[in-house]
């Protein structure tokens, strides 16, 4: 029997991807390394950035796992893998060679004072030139930059589909067993334990690279959450329990966030052995700050956003093209605005407004031109019309898209 569509997860996905525009605009103004940097960069807004950075991508992978499970209600595994490969790999390749290169171009202009034209840069880009370096830090090209999420999602979908095929009917039994297990305190504690084990054993050995082949700590987090979403998709009791825990989860999220900000803000001069011995505990708290927000967002979403509307159907289609475009727009406009020397709050507002406006403007063009639709991950017009139909039994259509 087909399960009812979980509309609240559509809304959460939409909001989570749109948060990326604010987050990546913020990356221009913080001290963390990024493609281009504002002359006003400081640590002022870093606590606000940390409010979403530990969990946002994990949430998206979990929702993608849920969506994959729903699609398996309608498609055989082979058909699903074929569809996902088309919808993910085509925009990924297009993005790597058309959308992403301006980010790398402006990065080498600012970081290594490259003076060549964009055409000259593109000749180096497509030839896998690795000579743009600052010390041992070299820019690898071609690159997928923010589209790494698409590559990882494709890989997880392929692996997940193979596992479902191998398990057969045992997949549903495993789903039911997990649904029964995750109740009460175990909803919070058990996933945090899994995330904490991964962080304590892999984070130092395998720092995040987003290069797919050597990013084992990231895989340990994200594939776990993707698989968790797939297994829990049909467990309606789980979502109701998450709803009931939403205020508890919110309190745990905010407390863990405050502790992380305080710990990371300790000056180096005060980082004594007595302070550093708390590192394993803080890693566990960080993992709580990964899982508690996911529970919070899903809990409040289940309570308040489990409804359909024309806006949901429009935004569900729009959000992937907006995701593909947004970071290139932010990087390019930030570089071009730099000589104007606007105040950072005004400049940041303009970046956000223009990124939303231009992204949706491009989407309005792309959605009307059939040949452009697959380049931005959109289904054919006939399939899109079917997906927008508000049938209560329709499976949740995955929007394949992170950072």
TrEMBL record:
Domain Acyltransferase: 7-361
Top-level taxon in the UniProt lineage: Bacteria
InterPro entries: Acyl_transf_3_dom (IPR002656), Glucan_succinyl_AcylTrfase (IPR050623)
A Pfam family it matches: Acyl_transf_3
Keywords: Acyltransferase, Membrane, Transferase, Transmembrane, Transmembrane helix
GO MF assignments: acyltransferase activity
Membrane-traversing stretches: 12-30, 55-73, 85-106, 149-169, 181-202, 222-240, 247-266, 281-302, 314-336, 348-366
PANTHER family (UniProt xref): BLR4337 PROTEIN (PTHR36927), GLUCANS BIOSYNTHESIS PROTEIN C (PTHR36927:SF3)
Official protein name in the record: Acyltransferase family protein
């Amino acid at each position: 029997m087909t399960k009812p569509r979980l509309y609240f997860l559509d809304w959460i996905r939409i909001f989570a991807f749109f948060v990326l525009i604010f987050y990546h605009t913020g990356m221009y103004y913080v001290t963390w390394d990024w493609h281009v940097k504002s002359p006003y960069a400081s640590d002022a807004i870093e606590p606000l950035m940390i409010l979403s950075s530990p969990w946002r991508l994990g949430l998206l992978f979990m929702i993608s796992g849920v969506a994959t499970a729903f699609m398996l209600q309608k498609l055989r595994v082979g058909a699903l893998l074929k569809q996902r490969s088309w919808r993910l790999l085509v925009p990924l390749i297009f993005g790597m060679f058309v959308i992403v290169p301006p980010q790398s171009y402006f990065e080498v202009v600012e970081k290594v004072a490259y003076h060549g034209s964009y055409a000259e840069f593109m000749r180096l880009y497509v030839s896998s030139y690795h000579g743009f370096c600052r010390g041992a830090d070299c820019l690898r090209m071609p690159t997928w930059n923010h589209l790494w999420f698409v590559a990882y999602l494709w890989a997880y979908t392929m692996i997940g589909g193979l596992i479902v095929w191998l398990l057969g009917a045992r997949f549903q039994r495993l789903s039911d067993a997990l649904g029964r297990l995750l109740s009460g305190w175990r909803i919070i504690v058990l996933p945090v334990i899994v995330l904490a084990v991964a962080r304590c054993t892999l984070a130092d050995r395998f720092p995040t690279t987003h290069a797919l082949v050597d990013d084992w700590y990231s895989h340990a987090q994200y594939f776990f959450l993707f698989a968790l979403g797939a297994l829990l998709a049909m467990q309606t009791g789980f979502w109701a329990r998450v709803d009931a825990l939403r205020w508890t989860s919110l309190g745990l999220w905010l407390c863990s966030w405050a502790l992380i900000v305080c710990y990371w803000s300790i000056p180096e001069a005060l980082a004594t052995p007595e302070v550093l011995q708390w590192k394993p505990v803080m890693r566990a708290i960080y993992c709580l700050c990964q899982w508690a927000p996911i529970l919070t967002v899903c809990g409040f979403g289940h309570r308040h956003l489990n409804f359909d509307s024309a806006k949901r159907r429009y935004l569900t289609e729009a959000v992937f093209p907006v995701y593909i475009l947004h970071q290139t727009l932010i990087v390019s406009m930030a570089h071009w605005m730099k000589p104007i020397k606007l105040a950072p709050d005004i400049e940041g507002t303009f970046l956000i407004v223009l990124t939303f406006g231009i992204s949706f403007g491009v989407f309005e063009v792309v959605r009307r031109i059939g040949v452009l639709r697959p380049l931005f991950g959109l289904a054919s017009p006939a399939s899109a019309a079917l997906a927008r139909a508000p049938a209560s039994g329709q499976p949740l259509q995955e929007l394949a898209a992170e950072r």
